[in-house]
Amino acid sequence: MKNTKSIIIFALLIVISVMAVGYSSFEGRLTLNGTAEIVGEWNVRIIGIETQDVSEGCDPGDPQFTNTSVTFSAKLLKPGDSITYLITIQNAGTIDVALDNIIFMEDPNGSEAINFTTSDIDHVLKAGNQTVLNVKVEYDPNTTEVPSIKTKSITGIIEYVQK
Fold first, then answer.
1. For the residues 80-102, what does the mean pLDDT come to?
2. Which domain holds residue 94?
3. How many domains does the chain have?
4. Hey, which of 49, 75, 134, 163 has its CA 20 to 30 A from 85?
């Protein structure tokens, strides 16, 4: 009986050894390698400023622009005179963008006889497309006296976000 137990234990050890070798021969290693690259480009910029509808005798100055700002200085003569500036904004990137916010702040201490108005612009600017913002500067046609304060400034911020 002692021999039988020894043979059974020895046989079980052999079976376990064969199973271990068999399992290891079916074991395999899987490897996963990968990379990612960002290829989208953000490039929303100002590409031009022009004047339009300049009242006779008025001076639109020499409007200037960079990729991110415009500067103009209008000289108006009399009530009703106006100058319109056309500001071209381009999405030169590869990502569509959406208009998030437009803020125009007028100098609160500026002349009440000068009005600034702006047009609406495209709310979605697809990659490669452009839009035009019109800014009209006008000497209030209802003004009956020459104002003591003769200047007024405006600051505008146009914010785009990724669509």
1. 95
2. 44-162
3. 1
4. 163
